[in-house]
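Sample entry was shown:
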Amino acid sequence: MPMPTDHVTRVSLSDEAYSRIEAAILDGTLAPGERLRDPDLVAWLGISRTPIRHALERLMAQGLVEMERNRFTRVAPFDVVGVKGAVEVAADLWSGAVRRSLASWEPEDIAIVAEIANDLVRSTTDQDVSQVVGGLEHLVTTCVLVDGNPVRLRTLTNVLPQVHRLARKLVGRPVFDDMCTFVDEFTVALGRQDGRAAADLIDRHVQKLMRSIPDPT
């Protein structure tokens, strides 16, 4: 019996709307506080209202969009307290993954993570904060994927958009000066499959990053 395709189409259109709206928020095209009106989004995206609403609900759950029924839908303001909370959660998920499972990682998994870490060092030398944040996100996500806990991965996926949004606020700030040292030490811990040492390095590095995030004014 042929499978119905309407649900599959709706999901894929919702994903497309989500990706494009999220990207516009993260790169500043859609500014904090900007209203997100259905007719404007339909015209811009070329997608019908229903999948757009599904996308906006996902973005609201991630803290990138604010919605109040029958009043407004808008881009959420940049909330430093909320972003710091998201960074802390992401760091806990990352360090927890390596602390719990690094000792049992396969050699190919370790090699992949080490390669991503080395790529991060190369991007750091280019002084491109957005690229560095993207590389760090890739490293974190890969470690959690290797750990294999689907709940941990879902939780990480939900907080990463707020972490990624931080990149625009850190342009011009020397917040990654010690990234090379961190990667060198982290790679050594990877090679030894020392989960406790790797997790401790993550915790210390993220605390340095947290102190570099400007406080609310």
The first strand starts at residue 65 and ends at 68. The two ends are 61 Å apart (CA to CA). The mean pLDDT is 85.
